[in-house]
Every structure is written in structure tokens, then in C-alpha cells.
Design goal:
alpha+beta, seven-stranded antiparallel sheet, about 40% helix, globular
Length: about 325
């Protein structure tokens, strides 16, 4: 977990730009890296990792960074990321939204979809890349929080700047593995708090949710523990056809089965952290949320979160 600093100015003039571009892509995700000023690039990246969460600090001259559809399709990185501006102003674009961040502000963005950063000034960011599979957040929750300006001086957002600064010191002190896991969990919890605490301002401008969809979601939430919950039972409870139910969820970019699975796994993820439920076996936790087959529950949990239910519990209880 050593702290590594890479300085582009240590490389010869002929190779410097290529070196800088490869450094940025290696330490973050695959990007088109375009300096906006003529002449040689001056830039520095400081890198470290805490478990499978990556911490980066980057500074340079004005730039345009763009992650394209092609890069998304061919890459295996899947991170939810936070960029905290320490210097300069930057336009961030993702999911049809634009945010401008300046010193003390930060933005959340997702490596699994295209995004653009345009830094009009010399800049410095602290960036945290956290694996999406380790977050009990739905795709809809994550996409609703991207490309929005967060204030790092107020509310929950005020927790981020001192955390990132203290992590720099902890990394330098060679934090032990067990400590790294605990810190990574803390970072994940902060991501969840930020995402779920962010209420999109434009939601009040949308048309009311389809009544049948609202009833279906309410039925799902009330009956997740029923192992027989499926599209047919949901449709029957809402007095609509199964095909119409599937259409409603497809229009939201998901499916009935995926929604049931995701909500069950999120509840199980939370229950495995609860000390008051430590007396229940892992299989019993799955059964509490409509997943009575321990092997199937374990496979689904590992696929979603990158670890087994038992491994997840061992880090908390």
C-alpha cells in the first residue's frame, strides 16, 4: 500500500506526453487525455490503495479528460468515483447532466458510463475509486447522483476532505491489512450516505410516477421475504397483466426479477452487519429475505458484492 508519486517532468521531452497519458490511464481508468495548453506537459500523480479502493491525487495544466463509449465497452474497471477539487475549476459531464466544481467542491461519477472533465485552469484533485460491487446501491441510485456538485464544506459532504487528507497520512504510515479493510468499509459507507442523501432537485419537475408502477414497487417492498414472490404474483396483486408489469419496469431500465434480487441482496448485506443478528446463520439471513437456498444465496451475493456472505459478515461481526 506504499504511496507512489509519478512526475511527468522527470521524463524526456520527446516521450513526456505519451508517458503522461499512459500514467493517467494506468492510475485511473482508460481515458482520452488532452492537455489544453501548448508545449510540454507538467503533471504529477500520487497513488495508493486501501484494500481494493484506490486513492489518487493528480495535478497538472488545463486538460480535457474524456471516457468514451468504446473505452467503457472494452474495459473491466467498474468504479464509483469521487473527485474533490483542491485547485482550479472543472466542468464535469455525465448522464446528461453538467456540474462545475471548484476548490472545496466534489463530484461523483461512474466509470461504467462515458464522462468528460474539462479543467479550464491548472488543477489539483483528490480522487477516490471505490468498486461498485462493494456498494449496496442500485444502479438507479448511483446514476441519480452523478455529475452533481457536492459542497465539501457543509453537511455530509464536509466529512470527505478531512477523510481523504487523513488517508494520505495513514497510507504513509503503512496501514496494516486489517486496518485497510476497515477503512475501505468506512469509505463505502460514506459513498452510500452521499448518494442516498442527495435528492435530485429536478425530481419535482417530473410527472408523477405511474400508479401501477408505484403499487408494484410497494408490493415488492412489503413481500421481499416471500420466496414465492415473482412477476406473476406481483402482477396479480396489482390487477395488471404480467406483460404490462414487465413493460413498466423495462421503461425504468430494469426488470421485475432484477429489482427483487437487488433489494433482497441489499437487505441481506445490511443484516449481515448487524450485531443483534449475529446469532443467525448466513443461510438464515438469506431466508429472511426470500432466499432460502443457502448455496444460491451465496452465489448471488458474491456475484453482486464480490465476496461471500460469510466473508462480508466476518469484517463486521
Amino acid at each position: 500500500m506504499a504511496l507512489v508519486t509519478i512526475d511527468a517532468t522527470t521524463v524526456g521531452e520527446r516521450d513526456r506526453l505519451d508517458f503522461w497519458r499512459s500514467t493517467v490511464c494506468d492510475q485511473f481508468v482508460a481515458l482520452d487525455v488532452t492537455p489544453q495548453t501548448p508545449g510540454l506537459v507538467a503533471g504529477k500523480v500520487t497513488a495508493a490503495s486501501v484494500a481494493d479502493t484506490h486513492l489518487r491525487r493528480i495535478s497538472s495544466v488545463p486538460h480535457r479528460f474524456e471516457r468514451t463509449e468504446r473505452q467503457v465497452r472494452t474495459a473491466d474497471e467498474d468504479y464509483l468515483q469521487i473527485a474533490l477539487a483542491r485547485r482550479g475549476r472543472t466542468l464535469v459531464v455525465q448522464d446528461g447532466r453538467e456540474a462545475v466544481i471548484g476548490p472545496g467542491d466534489f463530484v461523483i461519477y461512474d466509470s461504467s458510463r462515458p464522462f468528460t472533465f474539462v479543467a479550464a485552469d491548472s488543477f489539483e484533485y483528490q480522487v477516490c475509486l471505490h468498486p461498485k460491487r462493494r456498494l449496496p446501491l442500485s444502479a438507479a441510485e448511483m446514476s441519480a447522483a452523478t455529475a452533481r456538485t457536492f459542497d465539501g464544506r457543509r453537511g455530509i459532504g464536509a466529512m470527505l476532505p478531512p477523510l481523504l487528507s487523513s488517508l494520505d497520512r495513514a497510507v504513509a504510515d503503512d496501514l496494516p491489512v486489517i486496518g485497510q479493510e476497515a477503512v475501505a468499509r468506512t469509505i463505502g459507507d460514506l459513498f452510500v450516505a452521499l448518494v442516498r442523501g442527495q435528492v435530485p432537485a429536478e425530481t419535482t419537475e417530473h410527472e408523477p410516477e405511474n400508479l401501477h408502477l408505484a403499487r408494484a414497487r410497494a408490493h415488492l417492498a412489503a413481500h421481499l421475504a416471500d420466496p414465492h414472490l415473482d412477476p406473476a404474483s406481483v402482477a396479480a396483486a396489482c390487477a395488471i397483466s404480467v406483460s404490462y408489469l414487465h413493460k413498466l419496469f423495462a421503461e425504468e431500465g430494469t426488470s421485475v426479477a432484477a429489482t427483487i434480487r437487488e433489494q433482497r441482496l441489499q437487505h441481506a448485506w445490511e443484516d449481515l452487519r448487524r450485531t443483534d443478528l449475529a446469532h443467525l446463520g448466513v443461510g438464515a439471513i438469506g431466508a429472511r429475505w426470500g432466499m432460502p437456498d443457502p448455496a444460491a444465496f451465496s452465489r448471488a451475493f458474491r456475484t453482486r458484492f464480490g465476496c461471500s456472505p460469510r466473508e462480508h459478515r466476518s469484517t463486521w461481526v
